[in-house]
């Protein structure tokens, strides 16, 4: 069991301010690769709580016309920026590519800020709820500082300084900005259809009603009505959440990921590989 916590001990010797890129690398590639990715995937749904953001996504037609690629590109930008840090040569290249993709759209600073906060806090919440251990304070601080730096390079203004500020701002957005609109439901259904298509073709008719129930069960109960989704029955939500927690407890008993086997994404849209300049463009 002591080996299971060896990277946590390593992380606790690092400074979140100076070493946030290295801490994020250890979190996303070794300690919690699956949980971080799924937590980040959940933020794709929470981005749709603000109708003006849903409208931008609807107008771009990314999720409606090629939903899998749009989904993959979102995940891959996060991975490529975190891979060596936003201030690395590769990280800056990825941020420049991200800014270029956003340039044709009229996106306000407030919208960028909501997405940055949502995408930062969603993986933290997921890991702390379903991961094999909770994140330590240095890890949370590092994830927030990495997000701040990415946001600065994207030109986002008024980014909170710390985790408490990120959390407070999200709650303010939830109180003041989120509301149901048909476009929220439209784009959320496109996203759910992407997930359904991950199943083998013969199983997709069975998965089509189950996927929304499972996703809704894992969301904050305040959110499904804003997305136009039916809340999951309480017993189903309890079973789904219990299953995720049991998975975390099982992982705690397993050995840590080997240094030689860092997590690497295997995106469905790029079976032959990719560069950051492939993101956001038609095949």
Explain how this protein is built.
The chain is globular. Helix 2 (16-31) packs across helix 3 (33-46), helix 3 (33-46) crosses helix 7 and helix 7 packs antiparallel against helix 8. The chain is built from twelve helices and no strands. The protein is mainly alpha-helical and 283 residues long.
Main attributes?
single chain; 283 residues; mainly alpha; 12 helices; globular
Helix and strand composition category: mainly alpha
Order of helices and strands: HHHHHHHHHHHH
Distinct helical segment count: 12
Quaternary organisation of the protein chains:
single chain
Relative helix content: 55-70%
What coarse outline follows from CA principal-axis ratios?
globular
User: What is the arithmetic mean of pLDDT?
Assistant: 95
Low-confidence stretches: none
Distance between the termini: 46 Å
What's the short version?
About 65% of the residues lie in helices and about 0% in strands. It is mostly helical.
Strand and helix layout:
Elements: H1 6-11, H2 16-31, H3 33-46, H4 51-60, H5 62-84, H6 89-102, H7 109-130, H8 137-153, H9 163-176, H10 182-196, H11 204-218, H12 234-252
Helix pairs in contact: 2-3, 2-5, 2-8, 3-7, 4-10, 5-6, 5-10, 7-8, 7-9, 10-11, 11-12
């Amino acid at each position: 069991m002591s080996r299971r916590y060896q990277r946590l001990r390593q992380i606790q010797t690092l400074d979140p301010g100076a070493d946030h890129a290295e801490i994020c690398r250890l979190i996303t590639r070794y300690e919690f690769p699956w949980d971080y990715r799924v937590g980040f995937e959940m933020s794709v749904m929470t981005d749709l709580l603000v109708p003006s953001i849903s409208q931008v996504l609807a107008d771009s037609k990314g999720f409606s016309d090629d939903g899998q690629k749009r989904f993959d590109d979102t995940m891959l930008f996060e991975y490529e920026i975190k891979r060596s840090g936003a201030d690395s040569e590769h990280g800056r290249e990825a941020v420049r590519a991200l800014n270029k993709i956003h340039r044709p759209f009229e996106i306000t600073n407030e919208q960028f800020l909501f997405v940055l906060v949502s995408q930062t806090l969603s993986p933290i919440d997921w890991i702390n709820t379903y991961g094999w251990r909770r994140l330590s304070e240095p890890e949370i601080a590092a994830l927030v500082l990495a997000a701040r730096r990415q946001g600065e390079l994207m030109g986002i203004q008024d980014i909170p300084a710390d985790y408490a500020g990120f959390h407070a701002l999200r709650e303010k957005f939830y109180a003041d900005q989120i509301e149901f609109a048909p476009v929220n439901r439209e784009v959320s259904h496109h996203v759910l259809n992407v997930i359904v298509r991950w199943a083998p073709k013969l199983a997709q008719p069975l998965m089509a009603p189950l996927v929304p129930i499972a996703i809704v069960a894992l969301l904050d109960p305040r959110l499904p009505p804003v997305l136009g989704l039916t809340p999951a029955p309480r017993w189903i939500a309890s079973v789904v959440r219990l299953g995720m927690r049991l998975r975390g407890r099982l992982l705690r008993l397993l050995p840590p990921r080997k240094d030689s086997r860092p997590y690497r994404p295997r995106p469905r849209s790029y079976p032959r590989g990719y560069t950051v300049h492939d993101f956001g463009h038609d095949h």
